[in-house]
Amino acid sequence: MPDLHQRIGAELPGLRRYARALVRDVVEADDLVQECLTRALAKLHLWRDGTNLRAWLFTILHNQYVNRVRRGIRTGITVELDDTWPPLSRPATQEKRLELRDLDRALGQLPAEQRTVILLVGLEGMPYCDAAAALGIPIGTVRSRLSRGRTALRALMGLGHIRRDEIAASDVYRRSYSGDANRQLAAADAR
Q1: Model-level pTM greater than 0.70?
Q2: Counting Cβ atoms within 10 Å, is residue 191 exposed (0-12), middle (13-18) or buried (19+)?
Q3: Which of 25, 54, 127, 183 stands the most exposed, by the fewest C-beta atoms within 10 Å?
């Protein structure tokens, strides 16, 4: 059991990155991860040894997120105006930061199904089969949503058709969430 707890702990950075990308707020993301871990530990007896622990945890996190969204729709969400707009007193001067902002906004405009698949495969570097298992959908659906999502992202960012060596904005986005520049978005295309 302690070994399993260590394996769960090793998945925390990925869970945090995914939660932060989903809810787009650090505090809310930490709350979502905590809910996920609470549920995972309470339901640990349902996890079967030999199955993919990472996919199981990401499935729980995704389901917790969907439950939050549904609950928010029923109850309504109040947002303060100060919380919705970044301070405009000091505009960004670095090009990469602007690209990151544009990518973040473009991701926010994608349908949730496409955004979720792009985040799991592109940001987390999850293989298609693991993403399919985490979302409970067929692998072909993952590929289709990923392709449509990438095409939509390119259009939203005004990039049209781009080559692998031009995916700098996606690389910047991943590094901003993970600090791990070793995994490349192009590796996800190779799967």
Answers
A1: no
A2: middle
A3: 25
Kindly state the average pLDDT of the residues 150-164: 77
Tens of pLDDT, residue by residue over 136-148, are: 999 999 999 999 9
Longest dimension (CA), the chain: 53
Question: How far out from the chain centre does Cα 122 lie?
Answer: 8
Quote the CA–CA distance of 97 and 86 in Å, as a whole number: 14
Any residues with CB less than 8 A from the CB of 145 and at least 6 apart, and which? 113, 114, 116, 117
What is the identity of the amino acid at 93? T
Number of residues assigned to the chain: 191
Q: Spell out a b/e string for 21-58, using b for 16 or more CB atoms within 10 Å of the CB, else e.
A: bbbeeeeebeebbebbbeebeeeeeebeeeebbbbbbb
**What distance in Å separates the CA atoms of residue 191 and residue 127, rounded to the nearest whole number?**
7
